[in-house]
Design a protein that fits this description.
438 residues, globular, DNA-binding, 5 strands, Arc Repressor Mutant, subunit A, two-stranded antiparallel sheet, alpha+beta, Fork_head_dom, 3-stranded antiparallel sheet
Length: 438
DNA sequence: CGGGATAAACATT
DNA sequence: AATGTTTATCCCG
């Protein structure tokens, strides 16, 4: 048996419980274990039940340890915390290439579900000590609440156990095959058919996991390889070195989910820029991401025909692949169909890429009302590269990276006006809506 | 059906 | 070859 996880209904899930208005940005505070209590008012407070819906089964998982890390193992009942936003990076020498390091999550015993607390430290000081939750590895995960905001730290940094050092995906794969054995339950190498439905209960969807990974990362951003590493370290997905499907899925989610955006950073004069995937400000603020499935909406309309046709299918689509790289994910076409003319965007200013990706109209369940926080500028810096300490400042203007046209539930800019800048979209509404009737 | 996972075609770098 | 983007399916609640 293998599993992978599968969970339904997660949209709206907010992984966090924060209510605060500010983002924990990199500067932070943190370290402490904040006890972030979630104050009730939070809209996104995620209550257990909600979260519970994700899992199909109650979970109980055997404790597992992983790789060389000695995780404090957490009792099954315990909840893992997703951790708070990481703050400072620590310099990771080559880190940025594979920067994700695993850290141990201190077990948070007894965390009540509802409060999912928070944990820890985030260390800014030690990225390596951050605790991530490897929580998804084999274990059921429990509510991941992220709380972006950190209350006053009260505890000094957590002592965390030592952490594993960082593993690059390759290294993980290569070096620790052994460790894997024990986990029988890791994700199974997907069968070719594609679905393994037996999945492990309890695992959040890729989008959430990715969110988690990014959330924990300095600057809330990671390179693709690092994300892979995170998965290997924290989930069962990467268990099989040979399996590549999960990576495809990760990429797919990164591309399709509006909560993630790619940003290019210059590394140095002659060198080529590096791409990072980062949480959009909205995602950070809201503490969660939305369903990745939004893209489907388009399809529907696009082919008017009923669905019947699915046969042979796969006709080469003309506009596949992609365009754009510089900017980061922009939804390129207004009309998903063919126009690819406008496919290219300009580069993304480092300041705020937000172009946006929006979700299909209406599809969002009502539940996802994300609140918008007036956030202040986000500033982050991550000295990951030795000679270059990159600093990024998000001047977050109220520009939203998301949903340009429909603001339904989740991002209701008070000032609705400023968002929009998607050149592609043009003022006002997004094309999606219009799209359909055409 | 909506939502998530996957596979895969195709584009860019 | 690694990344990214899109489509298309499958399957489950």
């Amino acid at each position: 048996m293998d599993f992978s996880f599968h969970s339904h209904h997660f949209d709206g899930v907010q992984i966090s419980g924060q209510e605060s208005n500010d983002i924990p940005s990199l500067e932070a505070p943190s370290q402490g274990n904040g006890d972030f209590t979630m104050n009730a008012p939070t809209f996104n407070h995620f209550s257990l039940p909600d979260w519970a819906r994700w899992r199909s089964q109650p979970a109980h998982m055997p404790p597992r340890q992983f790789e060389d890390c000695n995780f404090p193992h957490v009792a099954d009942t315990e909840t893992y915390d997703l951790g708070s936003f990481a703050q400072e990076p620590i310099g990771d020498p080559n880190g940025y290439l594979n920067s994700y390091r695993t850290h141990v999550t201190p077990a948070i015993a007894g965390t009540t579900l509802e409060t999912l607390a928070p944990q820890t430290g985030d260390g800014h000081a030690n990225w390596s000590l951050l605790q991530p939750s490897h929580a998804f590895k084999g274990q059921p995960y429990s509510v991941p609440q992220l709380e972006p905001y950190q209350p006053p730290p009260d505890s000094p940094s957590s002592p965390l156990s030592e952490v594993s050092s960082y593993h690059s995906p390759q290294s993980l794969a290569a070096s620790s095959p052994a460790t894997m054995n024990q986990s029988t339950d890791r994700l199974s190498p997907r069968s070719s058919t594609g679905d393994n439905r037996e999945e492990r209960p309890g695992h959040p969807p890729y989008s959430v996991l990715i969110y988690q990974a990014l959330k924990d990362a300095p600057g809330h951003k990671l390179q693709l390889q690092s994300i892979y590493s995170w998965f290997e370290a924290n989930t069962d997905k990467g268990a099989d070195p040979n399996a590549k499907g999960w990576q495809n899925s990760i990429r797919h989610n990164l591309s399709m989910n509006a909560g993630f955006e790619a940003v290019k950073e210059e590394v140095g004069p002659g060198k080529k820029a590096v791409n990072f995937w980062r949480l959009t400000p909205e995602a950070i603020h809201s503490g969660g991401i939305q369903s990745t499935t939004r893209y489907r909406k388009l399809q529907h309309q696009k082919k008017g025909m009923g669905s019947g046709h699915r046969g042979p299918t796969h006709q080469p689509s003309q506009s596949k692949g992609v365009h754009a790289t510089k900017v980061v994910k922009s939804r390129s076409t207004n009309s998903p169909r063919n126009e690819r003319a406008e496919a290219y965007h300009h580069q993304i200013p480092t300041t705020n890429p937000s172009l946006g990706h929006e979700y299909g109209p209406t599809s969002l369940p009502v539940m996802q009302r994300y609140m918008q926080h007036p956030m202040g500028p986000v500033v982050g810096c991550h000295p990951m590269i030795p000679g270059n300490n990159t600093v990024f400042i998000d001047t977050m203007e109220p520009v939203s990276a998301f949903d340009v046209g429909h603001s339904h539930d989740w991002y209701a800019p008070e000032s609705g006006s400023n968002r929009a800048q998607d050149p592609l979209e043009g003022p006002g509404r997004s094309s999606w809506d219009l799209e359909k009737e055409i």
